[in-house]
Amino acid sequence: MTLPSVTPVDTAAAPALRATIDGKAKPLGALGRIETLAVHLGLIADGAQPAYDKALLLVFAGDHGLTAEGVSAYPASVTQAMVATFLAGKASANAFARAVGADLKVVDAGVDAELPAHPDLLDRKVRHGTRNAAVEPALTADEVSLALVRGAQIAVDAAREGYEVLALGEMGIGNTASAALIMHRLAGVPLDQCVGLGAGHDAEGLARKRAAIERAAARSDATKPREVLAEFGGLEIAMIAGAVIGAASARIPVLVDGFIVSAAALVAIELVPEVADYCVFCHRSAEQGHALMLRMLEVEPLLTLDLRLGEGTGALLALPLVRAASRLLSDVASLDDVLSRRL
Fold it and tell me: pTM score, two decimals?
């Protein structure tokens, strides 16, 4: 079970792309960070000019044994209920996907239930949820490898189907706990700076969550990405990390959503550093730890809207900016063209 190789972008092309943008019919720098995004997309496209009209949101779903410790304000059964809501087209992510013209598919990475077949459901289940990371490793090494490879293949298949850009989202009760542990171990950040309210804890619930996460962290000193995934999960996070690598191998940009997807991107970057070139970090969420994670990754997200839902909603909201930045390269006249017409 091997992951696909990733070719780094050719940064030597950046000055030419910047010169092209500077020569457009606008004042220098007038479109601010959209110009920076256009250069980034141009490097990924490597001479092509995709419009990113064909976009896909993949919502990876999985359950966490750690929820038995009370790390979430919601019961684990909500994961399955929300998957049904996505497939019925009634979740926030569905509404946002329709608003921006993106397709949506749900990936069963490890939901703790047998889900009925559905045209928009990809059954890639590795197991029925992770084990309880507070008392034992969440996953085996083989389960981690399988999740990574399956995630990569999903992204490669999407590129072969003609999708030009992938947005990644997640659904998994308890997954902010896993993401906090991943951030703590891979970024070397003190645990108390990684743990936030998640889906909406009160003070008592947050204290319970912190205690459970501390017990999980105390079990293991793992710091390598595969080992960290095995110790702390989750299956949706591992599969998202694989999807980041798969998309990068196919040279299509990855729209990274909030805290959990950023943790998965961190895993992917630790495994295959070249994938960082293909990631567009879409928003800074309200979850404690996300702003610090983004700073440590040395990225500036496109949006700050105080979102903390997940599902890929922030990635979808950034999709129109990606399309606009691409069209700056392909559709906007040069200043020389404008002046020649005037004369």
Answer: 0.96
